[in-house]
Amino acid sequence: MEESRKGGGRTPAVSMRGITKTFAGGVIANDNVDLDIYRGEIIALLGENGSGKTTLMNMLSGIYCPDAGTIAINGRKTEIRSPKDALDLGIGMVHQHFKLVDVMTAAENIILGLKEGRRLDLKAASKRIQEICDAYGFDLNPDQKIYDMSVSQKQTVEIVKMLYRKADILILDEPTAVLTPQESDRLFDVLRNMKADGKAIVIITHKLHEVLDVSDWVDVLRAGKFIGSLKTSETNEAEMTEMMVGHAVRLNINRPEVKNPKPRIEVEGLTVRSSDGLLKLQDVSFTARSGEILGIAGISGSGQKELLESMTGLCRIESGDIRYIYDDGRKKSIVGDSPLEIARLGVQLSFVPEDRLGMGLVGNMDLTGNMMLRSFRNGNSIFTDRKSPKALAGRVVDQLEISTPSLQTPVRRLSGGNVQKVLLGREIASEPTVLLTAYAVRGLDINSSYTIYRLLNEQKERGVAVIYVGEELDVLLELCDRILVLCGGCVSGILDARTSSKNEVGLLMTSLRGGRDE
Amino acid sequence: MNDAAKSKMKARIHIVKRAAMPWYQAAGIRALALFLAVIVCGIVTYVLTGDNPASVFKTIFEGSFGSERRFWVMLQNLSMLLCVSLAMAPAFRMRFWNIGGEGQVLVGCLATAACMINLGGKIPNGFLIFMSLMAAVSAGAFWAFIPAACKANWNTNETLFTLMMNYVATQLTAYYIIIWESPKGSGKVGIIQQKSQAGWLPQIGQYKYLLPVLVVFILTIIVYIYMRYSKQGYELAVVGESEKTARYVGISVPRVIVRSMILSGAICGLCGFLLVAGTDHTITTTLAGGRGFTAVMVAWMAKFNPIGMIFTAFLLVFLNKGAGEIATSFGLNQSFSDILSGIIIFFLIGCEFFISYRIVRQRGEGQNV
Amino acid sequence: MFDFVSFIPRAVMQSIPLLLGSTGETITEKSGNLNLGIPGIMYVGAISGVIGSFFYELSLPDRSLINPYLGILIPLSCCLLGSFLMGLLYCFLTVTLRANQNVTGLALTTFGVGFGNFFGGSLIKLTGGAVPSIALSATSKCFSKVLPFAKDTGIFGKLVLSYGFLAYAAIVIALLSSYVLNRTRTGLQLRAVGENPSTADAAGINVTRYKYAATCIGSMIAGLGGLYYVMDYASGVWSNDAFGDRGWLAIALVIFTIWRPNVGILASILFGGLYILYLFIPTGTNLAIKEIYKMLPYLVTIIVLVLISTRRKKENQAPEALGLPYFREER
Fold first, then answer.
1. Domain ends where: A429, A445, A460?
2. Who has greater pLDDT, A199 or A473?
3. Are residues A114 and A209 in the same domain?
4. If you compute the radius of gyration of chain B from its CA atoms, what whole number of angstroms results?
5. Cβ of A412 under 8 Å from any chain C Cβ?
6. How many CB atoms lie within 10 A of CB A278?
């Protein structure tokens, strides 16, 4: 049954009109957004990071209150004041960060908050959970504790929880971000079953192939504004991308030629386990060279974090070696050294970590205080030197065009792009020979992203060995010289970025050849 | 009215976090809260004593400034409370909830008393004082080190640990008091070395309390500089803000926790030393006098700023003396001051809400209920 | 030979305030509120009961005319009201105004202990009475009344039936709390609030209401502990600071039992026993050693605290959100 119009003229299950939400500090997350959701359809809510997708859906699920605008459910104007209101209206949202209580079982989590009589009848609940699982094809043990579960199992609990509550409007926030391709496929099958069952489904995503794979309609948000609605079967990636970013992405990232590359850091047979004993990296070997950008691609959680952290001394290494190679060819193993020792040995690894505010910067300190993080030990005095970090802060602000009210502003009040620039500026200021970055452009607008690319290229031309962990293949292919692909903790290939295609990288990312269980 | 309509009524008010507030506005809110608290205190006092408010406040004022002796006692109390509060600053700055100040002060007292009793008259007086000081400072540091080490190694809950350590210290003190009691059977230690005054801190001129007050005054400046300008102070600020960031820049978090807590305990130990060798010359289980707990509130209200603590500590001591004066003149119980302190603190910690958050009224809707 | 027959009843009588205090605190902590005001609340509970019965006894022409129902009901409801208001104050500051829980708790203890000692020490003066001290013997008789046939049942009666009704109530409350926490929907939701309030909120649980309810009910239970102490254990005689550090011991007990009120029944008897052990062990002239015995409950609590932190077994930890304020729109 092909409809030419969204919903085919029926009453929408959800109709949002003129929704506006502003956060403290004046960030406008949503600006006058209109959105309709119909039963029996899967809608993909598409937008870049920070375009307001999650905020919009959070207002539907009662986490936030809109500042202005109206929401109508089944044609009736309603105010959704709390998640409870939302659930009463049949709206269920599966958040990116699961809302589960770790020490409780799946069944306990699923019935949490329900009023089915005072007595706690876990048996009856388990029976119903089993019925739901059978109906849609989930695999779940109701008595398993959450802390014993894998990410995909936790997600299953979340979805079953919503179904148990008879939610018929289901919102999933980036559901595949944490899943393997196989798990994603299984999830999509379940979603199709639900759609056939007449439920209205919204998935928040920025992955185009998923949109094409599973959705009926695509609604696009950009910078908090509603841009338009497309029928999936009548659109293509180019059109969606254009709506998403405002103009067609011809990335055109400048890529200087590699000059005089020399081996700088050598990783050999690196194996790392997480604190709970899971194998995170297995026998990883590669060499990063000065004057080139080595890209690292992979589905999130394939060992990127562990790789960077073992190179900076933040994580324990089970076996293997990491050697820093001086200009004269001498080699020095840095395994087992603390982050400070690695820095003190004259081995300069600058590391721009994944969660910028959580790890690289101190949100409540001002720019000067944050610049000091790397340099505060300088000198023999027991007191800190504040003058040079302050001067450095001033220089970084000028050179990287950071917009901040003053040097005394706590960095948590800066926008994502500026925060990233502060961090990168500080790391570059320490004149590194190896620069490690993780998701350097995550959540940044296009302009800031290009500034970051430019900065990285400058470092490359200075002869720094740059390692760039990224998630967007287009960027990796246009920015990097070589791309190392991680899959399940193993290196599944190292490609020349100039000659490889997106498909090649994509294939390596999902190849089972490099997988743990062979 | 149905449930939906009710929830609509209720939800009209809505709370958001403030971006920032200019300092004068924040100060204004705090002053207003203090003013309201004083009015409530006045009403409570009036109800209980029937005295007219003007004379109540006059009595309170006289509690601290009524005579030279009172003034010095107030200064001594202030400096002791300030000393323990200063000890809290490094711990709290790194979000370590040291509520074991009481115990740390007490072991400091105990160590000083032990030195004075056992070594008094056997070694030169100056050396004895030095030994007592070292013993007190190490005892306090050790008492703080135990929970800190467990926190650093196993992330043991420090709030509950330090709390328990208070009572271990109390019982330990009680044990030694019985051993040292003099005269036997009195359950008291009495004035230690009353005749020889061995181990007593020297008096500056005629002012008995001047030396401890000066020591704490200098300590305030040192702690302020340490927290604000030293590398260690910077490190503990980073640890307090984000342990992850600290590890990332190569700060050893366990080391900072242990080091700062040792410092915190050592200052408490110093306070114990000043109490026993400087003013009281005896030891009881209640010598710390709840300062370990009061200091938590003093430090919190001053936002861990040593200079701010002078004011918050003064506020509480002033009130304590004043309320004590009222209680005495009306034949009431001395605990009256705790009630007034409680009221003031409730207002002051409650008003922080209005500095950090903003209440927003929802626009539109509602009329169609 | 160790005299168990007289030791046990005394240990039990010591244990009841601790049990009530720790049951109240456990319920409170399960909601994520670390209420360090419990010692103060127990004082307020005690003094409110004392004030109630003081005025009731004062209104009687003759103490022997006391109506046993009113004699219990008046102090009981005053005690519940007083401790309820303290719990409410704590919640208003920490939940509604989001003040720091530790600071608020300590302030509440300062206030509560001061309140108790002030009225305990000044009640007679304030009412212009002539008696030298507060001794509510008539009320106390109502509270410590035992079953009429208890005396005839020998050792069994002495060990099990020799206590006032609040002692049994304490045990019933502890068992009931355990049942509610572990076996009912309300308990499940309360635990969720303490473990992960944002999850509970997303599941449609009113976090604020649960925190208020748990803390206020917990405070009332703890307040009963103070009432038991003064009316039954201390025979209706109020003396300042006599209640001592029992409030903190109750908080220690919460950790010692790893947040399980039913375990608290036996654990509190153990703690109570350690408190009076010195009376039953021949110490000769060494009186000092009794202070070391009194130290034991705190020491074992510290050991338990360290053990659970080294073991890291998920089920044995404090509620995960303990001590943290919850704000839905935190960003």
1. A429
2. A199
3. yes
4. 24
5. no
6. 11
Is there a domain that residue A474 lies in?
yes
Q: What is the ipTM of this complex?
A: 0.90
Question: A103, C195: Cβ pair inside 8 Å?
Answer: yes
Nearest to A24 among B17, B234, B365 (CB): B17
- Let me know: does A169 contact A90? Beta carbons within 8 Å: yes
**Domains detected in chain C:** 4-148+155-316 (1.10.3470)
Confidence of residue C171 (pLDDT cuts 50, 70, 90): very high
Map tokens 């038991």 to a residue. Answer: C228
Q: Does C183 touch chain A (CB under 8 A)?
A: yes
Mind giving me the DSSP string for A142-188? TTSBGGGS-HHHHHHHHHHHHHHTT-SEEEEESTTTTS-HHHHHHHH
CATH assignment at residue A489: 3.40.50.300
Residue of C nearest to A413 (CA): C331
* Number of helical H runs and strand E runs in chain B: 14, 2
Instruction: Label residues B259-285 b or e (16+ Cβ within 10 Å = b).
Output: bbbbbbbbbbbbbbbbbbbbbebbbbb
Q: How far apart are alpha carbons C264 and C304 in whole angstroms?
A: 14
Amino acid identity for residue A307 in this structure: L
Q: Which amino acid is at C34?
A: L
Does residue B226 register a pLDDT over 90?
A: yes
- In this structure, are A439 and A423 located in the same domain? no
Does residue A457 share a domain with residue A343?
yes
Average pLDDT, whole number, for chain B?
87
The residue from A390, A406, A429 where one domain ends is A429
Compute φ and ψ for A371, nearest 5 degrees.
Answer: -65, -35
Contact status, residue B109 vs residue B84, Cβ threshold 8 Å: no
Model confidence pLDDT, tens digit, residues B14-31: 777 776 777 888 889 999
Class (C level, CATH) for B69-325: mainly alpha
Collapsed DSSP state (helix, strand, coil) of residue C256: helix
Q: Which residue of B has its CA nearest to C323?
A: B159
Whether residue A403 lies inside any domain: the answer is yes
Distance between CA atoms of C331 and C316, rounded to whole angstroms? 30
Q: Are residues A66 and A124 in the same domain?
A: yes
Domain count, chain A: 3
Cα separation, C265 vs B92, in Å, equals 36
Residue A509's CB is within 10 A of a number of other CB atoms, namely: 20
SS3 state at A91: strand
- Low-confidence winner among B16-25, B238-247, B351-360, C58-67 (lowest mean pLDDT): B16-25
Chain B: closest CA distance from residue A489 (Å): 23
Which residues of A fall within a CB distance of 8 Å from C195? 101-104
**Residue count of chain A:** 518
Please report, for chain B, the start and end positions of each structural domain, with discontinuous segments joined by +.
1-51+330-369, 69-325
Residue A23 lies inside a defined structural domain of this protein: yes
| Residue B2: pLDDT band with limits 50, 70, 90 | very low
Task: Give the residue-averaged pLDDT of B102-112.
Answer: 96
CA distance C256 to C270: 11
Tokens representing residue A121 in the block: 């009848």
A115 touches chain C (CB under 8 A): yes
Task: Name the residue range of residue A311's domain.
Answer: 256-348+431-518
Q: What is the pLDDT of residue A152?
A: 84
Task: Provide the residue type at A173 as one letter.
Answer: D
The verdict on A209 and A335 lying in the same domain is: no
Assigned token pair, A81: 């004041």
Report the residue from C191, C204, C317 with minimal CB separation from A113.
Answer: C204
Strand arrangement of the beta sheet that strand A349-352 belongs to: A349-352, A434-438, A465-469, A293-297, A482-487, A490-496
- Average pLDDT score over residue span C169-177: 96
**Cα–Cα distances in Å, from C250 out to B11, C235, C264?**
38, 21, 10
Confirm whether A111 is domain-assigned: yes
